[in-house]
Amino acid sequence: MRTITQTAVVITSLFLANNTCNAQWYEAQGHASTDKYSIEIARTKAMENALKKALLVAGASVSSVQQVVNGLLTQDKISIRASGSVNSIELIDELHSGNMITVTMRADIFPQEKKCFALDYKKSILITKSHLNERQQANIGKIYQLDSAVIKQLNKKLAKQSRYSNGKLLLKSATEFSRLNESFNEEKIKQLAISLADTTNSQYVIFSEINDISFEQQRSNSWQVWQQGTYPRNFDFTLYLYNGLSGEQIWQSSYQNAAVWDFNKRESVDVHATAFWQSDYGNMINSLLDNIVNDIDNNVMCEPSEGRIVQVKGNQITINLGRHHGVKIGDEFSLLHSSNFTSDLGRSYAGYNISPYKVKVTKLTKQSATAITLDNNLLGNIQINDLAVRY
Q1: Is the pTM of this model over 0.85?
Q2: Distance of CA 1 to the CA centre of its chain
Q3: Residue 315's domain spans which residues?
Q4: End-of-domain residue from the set 109, 143, 176
């Protein structure tokens, strides 16, 4: 494998370090003719062609590929000038056949911020049961079911307020996320996200933790000495969003606030009841959940719409995106082979080989779409669980 060295990167190392989780590896082939160009120039043209395909599928800007790649050949060393959307590039293979040169490249790409190619598609998100990290703090009010009540409320708000997300609930049992997260077991968390997404036909998975529901020590009505003391109660919540196809974490954020607990401390409170959600404490949580819905939308709106291929037949495929997600008759998708790989350090990464096939949607149901190849050619080695992507 010939490694391409970056000679100029218009983004800082700090930016790369903070956004590594948002990058994806894409593998594509590029072609160029040697009739009009020297081998060196044709090789550069083929590399630009391959990278353009990868950038399109990844959802990055391709207004000028020359702004991304400026290839220079010096014997066996190739230098690359890269823009902010490309972290690193590897030349995997090079084939000469007659007057054609074909290169296979792998690029680590950041989808360019706010370049949204699938805003009209809703992403399916699995919302799992939250976890009370300090369960003993729920003793006052006996609010042990707050972990499921908050998630139910979040799902309701997604259904009513979200423009880019469709939520579905998994509340029957808790997942292993918190235990794995506490031990920093990122590989097992990846596997968990992929497994849950596959089982529930979801594109994304949300995990969450309730970190703190303790009472503050200072009473809020200390000047009213003749009344029973009322004390603010904290609510500290962290949400984690994972790509269900790759298992990579896309985003996480924490939300904190406090509000008066206007119930008797000896009273058992039903956290699923209207009285709780209309209380000061319930209204405070509701406000945080409104912010969370907006943040979820902002983080998935520019992600490529990816559907899993569930059936292949001749020149026809069926994918698990449908009318419910915003798919329309005539929409075109590119096809990707999943090709996850493991680095020399033993870490697994999500990778994709870009297929030469494109398909157009001809039939729709609420949850699925049927598409055929544009030129009616057979789909070759496209398989179930490969991906269809609209950019």
Answers
A1: no
A2: 29
A3: 305-390
A4: 109
